[in-house]
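Q: I'm teaching a short session on how sequence maps to structure, and I want students to see two examples side by side rather than one. Could you give me a first protein with its sequence written out and its structure tokens following it? Keep the formatting plain so it prints cleanly on a handout.
A: Of course. Example one:
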Amino acid sequence: MTLREILAEVDDLKNRIDSLRPIDPAQEQRIMQKFRLDWNFHSQVKIGQYKTTPNSVKTNTGAIYYYASPEETPALMGELMQWFRAESEKGDLHPLIVSATFHYRFVRIHPFDDGNGRMARLLMNLILMQTGYVPVIIKLASKGAYLFALEQADAGELEDFIVLVEGELIYSMELYLRGVRGEDIEGIGDLNRYSL
């Protein structure tokens, strides 16, 4: 197709959408939510294909932080999934601990070329929601504390990271309860609403 043909097709689709306006607000909200979910999901690069080159990073101190090598990644991800299945079957650990630990271990491997933090948070929330909890949103305002807690976990102190996730989970649960009671939840935390 030529550029002119592509633009004509785009214009045709826009005209078809415009002819359906006004769109029911509930329907439009549902559509926009779908877009947000798709955008978040598809912002990952080649999900399902592990990294093919090292993705080490330089820390604030200037040191190089080495994640798992591309060669180590499949085995480490296999071990992580075995750990998760075993912990889920045993049911001894609280879902918050399982989800936060899974998040940390996933980030420590850094299995993809890009989007590892977003995927770790998505999977953490999936674990929480599968066990009846609401999702945790790590807000941009918490980025420094989030990164510091991850550094503490690297030093063997996972508790700080679990506590950080717990605080955000409590916030989400309180917000959820306000919404269930019919209280206004719009504008709550707007200064911190943008997530990592």
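Q: Perfect. Now a second example for contrast.
A: Example two:
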Amino acid sequence: MQSKFCKKLLAIENQWDNRRYIYWSVFNHETQSSQQFNNKLEAILYKNQLPHATIYFHWYDEVFDRVDTSIEPFDSYPELLRQRAQELRDRYDYIRLWFSGGSDSVTALNAFVNNNIRIDEIVINCWLDFGHSNPSLTANKEITLAAEPYLKSIEHKLDTTKITKIVLTIDDYKMVLAGADKLGEIPYLHAMDRGAHLFGLNCVQYPWEKVLDSTTNENYCDLFGGTKPVIKRKGDNYYFYIVDTSLQDQYLSRRAEDFFVSTQNSALFLKTAHMLKNCVSALKLSDNQIDAFCKQNAYRLIYNKAIGRDTIWHSCALFKNDQNNGYYVKELDFNIQNFKHFRFVENLKHDSNWLSLFKAHTDSFNVMQKEFNFLWNLNSNGIPDANLGYQGHMSKFYALS
């Protein structure tokens, strides 16, 4: 049931295999045997065929099992950022950073720039409505008000870096917004979707295919801003973990590098987890407050500061516009969770060509909700709702104290 794009991701070759570090397993309690899967949906479908089985999400287990995670790394956070940037530079001939102007990708970029470490290419992915006259009403608000101005401010430090800006077209969306008869070709149905993306509506896979197809260097990586830690307190002890719904399809690729998680050295990510633990401990948060602090957008600024992310452009982040109940598009009779996607739909809903594509996509969305009702998070009425994304699976819990 893998989409064409998902198959392409999994087929990409490199000198190390990312799937060794990110995968799912299904444990059959009757046979006491375990089956491994590189794709979340396939793991879920297999598990549903068994009378008694459990799904486990594996996220860099081999990396963190090698160290005592309760000990905070000695090196300073800026030094660990430098080490990670240098590790990537030493490992790859060509480094391509996917840059949104958000705190994660800005921090990753600054790790190179502040330490005079070359980065070969920066890619900015723009939605179809990039030319909207009011930047605060475009789906590309973060690009317009954060990413491009920031790159302009440091362009004297990027004189050897190629800047690639990709603006999607109607033809790109024709490849994604398929009707219900092409469910098997819809990216994001088959991997790790959080619901807000509306299963491929952001069309991010096609910009990636464009640069993949044009890549001539054999030893390269696609670098992403990276994963954030989530922590939990049990009694007097703190633990960190990851939920699979927090990741993107691109992390399945062997070419992908998460800036904050190295397969060679766990120190940088572990440092951020300890910084987060130190922050919530100093704030004397309750267990429920800790969960909210790590997961709710209302705390995103202080959370990002706690884990050392650069928040200089935080005021441009789109999540501050999000509403708990999402946005209703009257003309399409469709509810959209995320402000960015709402602006995208609002700005294009009067284009007849695009409107027909989106209506086909809503047909797909409705079919997915019915045919895969066991996948979705529940809404306030206790009903599976595909608009809220897949149910998540947690990784191992690692001790921070």
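Q: What should students look for in example two?
A: Point them to this: Residues 12-16, 187-197 have pLDDT under 50 and may be disordered. Also worth mentioning: The chain is about 35% helix and 15% strand.
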